[in-house]
Design brief:
single chain, 191 residues, mainly beta, five-stranded parallel β-sheet
């Protein structure tokens, strides 16, 4: 049936129904900028194993946790949950089972966890945006991100302290490194 569901920038209201899990062949879910959309991201979204793109950014009433079932979406390439201040909890470790190339969690003020070590399994990751997600426990620069061979954009902070790791130079494809507002960074710049 339907392979792409675009509902962005509409005046729809209510919740994302659990029946979304019946759209198993759906590849794209575009639910961003829907001010009246509320409730949790249904766990049944994990049943949509053909999904490659999930856009749920800028929905101020979406709440709850990122479902661990997202790890069942082996083909998931693009996950954008930016600007959802009520989403809370941890970044699920199951995210390492996906084929993510783009992970956007900036301005998710209530996500709090360590960055899961499973992020290092995302060898196709091109971009990761974690700006203004202050409850992510990073303390020092997460060296696990220096193992991502094709990373081109890395935005992270505030809250990073200490020195930049030498291993940062391993990111040969890095085009943008955004560490602004990390006042605890010390030492010298890498050459």
């Amino acid at each position: 049936l339907q392979n792409q569901l675009y509902l962005a920038q509409t005046s729809l209201n209510g919740t994302i129904p659990p029946q979304i899990g019946h759209l198993q062949n759906n590849q794209v879910f575009l639910f961003n900028d829907i001010p009246a959309l509320q409730g949790k991201i249904p766990t049944q979204i994990g049943n949509c194993e053909s999904t490659t793109h999930v856009f749920l950014h800028s929905n101020p009433k979406i709440q709850g946790r990122i479902p661990t079932q997202i790890g069942k979406q082996n083909n998931l390439n693009y996950l954008d949950l930016q600007q959802n201040k009520i989403i809370k909890g941890q970044i699920p470790t199951q995210i390492g089972k996906t084929d993510l190339s783009y992970l956007y969690l900036s301005n998710c003020e209530n996500i709090k966890s360590n960055l899961p070590s499973q992020l290092a399994l995302l060898t196709f990751l091109h971009e990761i945006k974690l700006q203004n997600t202050p409850k992510i426990k990073t303390q020092t620069f997460p060296t696990l991100l220096t193992t991502l061979p094709i990373l081109t954009i890395l935005q992270i902070g505030p809250g990073i302290r200490g020195k930049l790791p030498i291993k940062l130079s391993n990111l040969q494809n890095l085009k943008e490194l955004d560490l602004h507002c990390n006042r605890g960074l010390i030492g010298t710049l890498l050459e």
